[in-house]
Specification:
The chain is mostly helical and 152 residues long. It is built from five helices and no strands. It starts with a helix and ends with a helix.
Amino acid sequence: MRAKLSYALTAAVLVFYFVLVGSRGVMLIQAGTPLTVTFGLAVLILPVIGVWFLWKNTQFVRRANQLAAELDAEGGLPVDELERTPSGRIDRDSADEVFARRKAETEDAPDDWRSWFRLAVAYHDARDTPRARQAMQRAITLHQASRRRTAA
């Protein structure tokens, strides 16, 4: 719940920023000189890119949460079996051990979105965010493909 609240707050601040920057871009365009119009258009590009980025990330998070809910309903969410240091951080050796199992599971079933979801969690636990994101995107893609096959 805390993560959702943080995400919503960050998104709200970004939207406020996009509106603020966009209004400055419009003001520059309204000034009407070639230089201010050029700068105004350049400034308007930033909120457009930001809104697109925010939208894509929101879709990603929503789809990942849907997969988590479906996997939870099946009883297939990965169990937190990681050892932790006294400060509460995940022990690196423990994360590596779980990661090796999740990777082997994914290699055994490369077309199963569930194994990719669990691999994404293992990557996240190992603090490899780019690969965690790629693995989760693969899980989302496989899940969507499996839904299309069952619907047809």
